[in-house]
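Worked example 2:
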Amino acid sequence: MTEGAPPAGEQALWYAERAVEQTYFQRGFSLKQAVAPVLAKSYDSATVDRLKELGYLARAGELSFRLAREFGFCYGVERAVDHAYQAREHFPDRRIFLSGEIIHNPDVNRRIEDLGIRILRGEGDPESRYQEVREGDVVILPAFGVAIAEMEHLRARRCVLVDTTCGSVLNVWKNVRRYAREGFTAVIHGKHFHEETRATASQALTHPGGQYLCVRNADEASAVCEFIRGATPADALLARFRHAASPEFDPGRDLGRVGLANQTTMLMRESLAIQEMFRAAMTQRYGASELAGRLRAFDTICSATQERQDAVIQMLAEGGLDLMVVIGGYNSSNTQALTRICAEKVPTFHIARPDCITADGILHLPAGSGSEVRSEAWLPRGPVRIGLTAGASTPNSVVGEVIRRLLALRGLEPSSLGPA
């Protein structure tokens, strides 16, 4: 008998549990100190540290910088990146795959690939997505999580799974499973095509009769509420949302009891507005006395997302900015939300990478746009007060390089940064 094994009657379960432990990792590999120097070299920034020392306000020549008090990497992203580096350290000779981008930041994903970790691109069914993955290969699950069908497929292939799913996402999943168990359809404020929303929606199908519907914004939520009020026929609603609903979704049957949830990186104020829209529609249709039995809602925006939104709102309220630069992947929902907030107050430039800033202009994604554009005369002459923030997937190293490039436009170096 293996040392430490239990009595014979319990051995089957004991060995099964040991097998799971060896092929599923959720807490890293106790190698945090080993990878810390590499992470610091790759993702820290002396320039950002300098701005923090100066109270998030700095000046160099005619350029003034104000950095949001909360910006960049959140805990969940730091954990996901840390675990990817630990996985490479722990499995130096194994093939390692990522089931999609670990986070929505091009610089971080490039560095992950430089470790020899292959990012699996595209969508489709699990069989086609993971056709190259063999038994014993390591597959890292990103901070967004993966859909249940993908998890089951990977377990069946006997892969080694490194699960970096963010705790805030897991909290949403818990609520969605509870909705399904108690007979409520999950209405998810999120982008139906986003990895996180797809994974969250799959949780609604864990119980018999569980259903989901994804609404991207207030306009789509309004269409659903109009059906609840009786103003829109079911076939029209299905035609609009078939791509964003569970396979057996039936509006007449499934919108009588609704539980609201969010993709964790959406704009909080819009999520709250959608909640009130559903509250009003349910009250109008069924009466206030039935509301408690018809509508459930929990705050499932992650705290880091909210803190970053609050920080830019506060910064904008204080005034004194000529423009904002928002840094983060174009497919990052939380960065898009920051861009929308800023664009309502000052000229705003959402850039994905430091090299978007050149002597000839700036490549950026305007708020609400789907296409990157180039603006040439974007930086005013003379004194300019620049606000800076970054999405939760953006490391300090990228923020620091953006500041360096902004300074270079005026012939300055980061060493010239001083008190404002």
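The chain has a mean pLDDT of 93. The longest helix spans residues 268-286.
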